[in-house]
Amino acid sequence: MSSPHAFPEIDDHGLLRFLTCGSVDDGKSTLIGRLLHDTRAILADTLETLAATSRRRGLDGVDLSLLTDGLAAEREQGITIDVAYRYFTTGTRKYIIADAPGHEQYTRNMVTAASNADLAIILIDARRGVQTQTRRHAYLAHLLGIPNLVVAVNKMDLVDHDAEVFARIRRDFLDFAAWLGIEGACFVPISALHGDNVVERGPHLDWYRGPTLVELLECAPSAQGTRPDVFRCPVQYVCRPRDSADPALHDYRGYMGRVESGAIAVGDAVMALPSGRTSRVRDIQIGGVGQPEAGPEQSVTLLLEDALDISRGDLLVRPDQAPAPRRELEAHLCWLAERPLSASRHYLLRHTTREVRARVAAIEHRIDLNALTHQPATELGMNDIARLRLRLAQPIHPDPYASNRATGAFVLIDESTNDTVGAGMIL
Amino acid sequence: MTTLTPSRTRTLSHLDWLEADAIHILREVVGQCANPVLLFSGGKDSICLLRLAEKAFRPAPLPFPLLHIDTGHNYPEVLAFRDERAAELGARLIVRSVEDSIARGSVVLRDPGESRNRHQSVTLLETIEAFGFDACIGGARRDEEKARAKERIMSLRDAFGQWDPKQQRPELWSLYNARTHPGENIRAFPISDWTELDVWQYIRRERLALPSIYFAHYRPVVRVGSRLRPVTPLTPAREEERIETLRVRFRTVGDITCTAPVASEADTLEAIIAETAAATQSERGATRFDDHTSESSMEERKKAGYF
């Protein structure tokens, strides 16, 4: 199809999900507002509403941070309580921002937002440098396995755009990051308020020759690029259209799921877990169309040469890459619920598409997120993170979270309320 | 055995990624819920949703029926389109009408001409109860409105259909929790992360048919502030209003009394996409009469059970 219009082609670099860490004081909401504004994702009518609200609250000019406070309950308190999702496109890539509140009591929100992020922007106020909060955010980003870290040193306008301030913060952060085991990070000096080095370069930071914040986002590898090579495909649903009017479908048995990592091709050997039975891939369908192969993050239907007894909750792997069955797990767990974790109760553990009962065998230590030290603990409250041992009623086939986020993560569900109460990362 | 060297640089296009993600969510709904239903109005978002459902479950027929809550104030061409599309797919289409709720006395109108948009919630809840649906799959998007920006992909509603923004279940990784107690239900939003532009690009890529009123056409309208109100038997011009015939299209299609067209020359998908990319008014801002009553009107309606 040809078109007389200039066409927004944004297919080239796919999609990137990122998280912004910081508090209102660091200018996080202003930064998001700036990104949306300078990539023209804020439309004129929204801007007018913002301007009117800013005037009503006695502010000069448009307060871009108002863009991100959503719920009435949040406006009353002047803070963000929950994760909000925002969208913009640069013309070459689509972005999903998970905006999580920065306060300590909202650790669970940051963990939630971080769980799907390909990149984290850690915001530092240039006047304050690396703070307790910065360390907490970096630790959580690292714990949640976010592959790319960008440290944005904000409010450079308030330190006279001083290169030495930026260099000192960079050194401080790297010292601390090395101690945590973080391999590297990118640094960019910005002023979200004035827009310097966010989307536009601006005249004030000419000593900085590196990429702008958006340039860093543009070249960051997407999730598919950072997933491991081992093939993992949890079965979500088995398609058996036996009642179909088409007799050709009476023996159809399609295993539906998403390729969480690795790749698979027609003819490849696969093993179903937990049964351990093997077969070969006869056909791969994506959207009902046959394909020779499939890769990470594609939703597929696999047809096998043999009729294996496979159902939801099973895991398809390559026979030579099968993860071992485990009924005991070592894990980091973030507690998300108001009712504390109880070692005497059973919880439902969701790992990929599989559910098994679990109970806590031992809490090894709780992590003090401010001092980043280990403390003994017998109980976990909301926003606590601990290392613990779990015992399962049936085995699961996990990978360590550090090598595979999709098959190393689990949630705990309280069966009496059906709430999601814990987020776990398997060691 | 074919040895594949997985390419570390392979990147799905943003539409391929969004499609795969939505299919994953649809399959989770069907994998976890006993009796889901897909809300299909014949509007563009639900047209995308229906295509995604088709692609998720091919070659099997859809594993759930379709449901439309008809306010009785819909454009006839959209209803005709809804029926045709459902028939084409061989899908079971359930239509329930706000009119029936009025007859039953569960919806009481303050005045007969008022918008019935908000009353859909009552009829929807009555239908959920009658059929025992435990999940309703809908085409809401987070970019539409700031209360939606914070809603989960699988969002729990209590027995009164109410959404409680402070009691949302944390949603991590792709581990969706669609568990319900009897009487509760899940609203599942597979295209949460899509923007208006993504929807139009997907419609173009999939060559999806749309009701004609999405494309530029001549229509009698009156100007109400910065918006246009269509002149229809339901929404006649008042004496002091001047009727103009303008070239317009609808960006969003819903109850006649609360959706407004925008002036547009865009009569092809390409032209609509170009306009959407350059738009200066948000979708709901330009076209809805019901979102402007207060800064948090969507949040209030959602708490009361609105989709």
TrEMBL record, chain A:
Gene3D superfamilies: P-loop containing nucleotide triphosphate hydrolases, Translation factors
Tr-type G domain mapped to chain residues: 13-229
Single GO molecular function: ATP binding
One record GO biological process: sulfur compound metabolic process
Keywords: ATP-binding, GTP-binding, Nucleotide-binding, Nucleotidyltransferase, Transferase
Domain of life where this protein originates: Bacteria
Pfam hit, one: GTP-eEF1A_C
NCBIfam families: CysN (TIGR02034)
InterPro entries: CysN_GTP-bd, CysN_II, CysN_NoDQ_III, G_TR_CS, GTP-eEF1A_C, P-loop_NTPase, SO4_adenylTrfase_lsu, T_Tr_GTP-bd_dom
Top-level taxonomy: Bacteria, Pseudomonadati, Pseudomonadota, Gammaproteobacteria, Chromatiales
The protein, known as: sulfate adenylyltransferase
Cited PROSITE patterns: G_TR_1 (PS00301), G_TR_2 (PS51722)
The protein's Enzyme Commission number: 2.7.7.4
Automatic annotation (TrEMBL), chain B:
Highest taxon above the source species: Bacteria
Region (Disordered): 282-307
Name the UniProt record assigns to this protein: Sulfate adenylyltransferase subunit 2
Basic and acidic residues bias: start-end ranges: 285-307
InterPro entries noted in UniProt: PAPS_reduct_dom (IPR002500), Rossmann-like_a/b/a_fold (IPR014729), SO4_adenylTrfase_ssu (IPR011784), Sulfate_adenylyltrnsfr_sub2 (IPR050128)
Source species of the chain: Marichromatium gracile (Chromatium gracile)
GO molecular function: ATP binding; sulfate adenylyltransferase (ATP) activity
Domain Phosphoadenosine phosphosulphate reductase residues, every copy: 35-261
Known EC number: 2.7.7.4
Biological processes per GO annotation: sulfate assimilation
Family, as annotated: Belongs to the PAPS reductase family. CysD subfamily.
SUPFAM superfamilies: Adenine nucleotide alpha hydrolases-like
Keywords from the named record: ATP-binding, Nucleotide-binding, Nucleotidyltransferase, Transferase
Pfam family, one: PAPS_reduct
